[in-house]
Design a protein that fits this description.
mainly alpha; two-stranded antiparallel ribbon; 8 helices; 54% helix
C-alpha cells in the first residue's frame, strides 16, 4: 500500500496500536543485529545485495502499513541534507518528515543496490523508528 503525501496525516492516525507495536518490536532485533546483509562488489560493479531477514521483514512491513508514501522523493533536497549528516537527531522531526525520509531510503534501494542495508548499518533506520516511536509508541 502506498499512500499519497496529502493523505498521510489521516492515514497514520488510522494505523492501529498493534500495527505500531509490531513495527517497534523490530527495534531490539535491529539493535542486536551485527550483519544487515552483504553488498557484493567485483571489478567496480555492484551485484545483487543479500539482505538479512530483519531488513526484508522491515521493508515488507513498512509497505504493508503504508509508511512508504507517494511524493517526489528524488527531488527532495531537504531530505538529502538531513540524511547526509549521520549525527542528525531524527527524533526532532515530524511524522511526515520521518515517513518521507523512510520513503526516500526504501525507494532509492530499488535504484541503488544495497542502499537500504547501508542505512541499517549506519543506524538511520533505527533513528527513524525511534522518532516514530516517540510519536506513537
Amino acid at each position: 500500500m502506498i499512500v499519497i503525501l496529502e493523505d498521510l496525516p489521516e492515514h497514520v492516525s488510522n494505523i492501529t496500536r498493534d500495527q505500531w507495536k509490531k513495527l517497534f518490536a523490530m527495534i531490539p532485533e535491529m539493535e542486536n543485529t551485527a550483519d544487515f546483509g552483504e553488498i557484493v562488489f567485483k571489478d567496480g560493479t555492484v551485484y545483487t545485495a543479500t539482505r538479512a531477514g530483519i531488513v526484508d521483514r522491515f521493508h515488507a512491513y513498512v509497505y504493508e502499513i503504508g509508511l512508504v508514501i507517494d511524493f517526489d522523493w528524488p527531488h527532495w533536497d531537504e531530505g538529502r541534507q538531513i540524511l547526509s549528516d549521520e549525527n542528525t537527531d531524527l527524533s526532532k522531526y515530524s511524522v511526515v518528515t520521518l515517513c518521507k525520509l523512510l520513503t526516500a531510503i526504501v525507494r532509492s534501494d530499488r535504484f541503488v543496490e544495497g542502499n537500504l542495508i547501508a542505512f541499517f548499518e549506519n543506524g538511520t533506520i533505527l533513528k527513524i523508528l525511534r522518532g516514530l516511536e516517540k510519536h506513537f509508541g
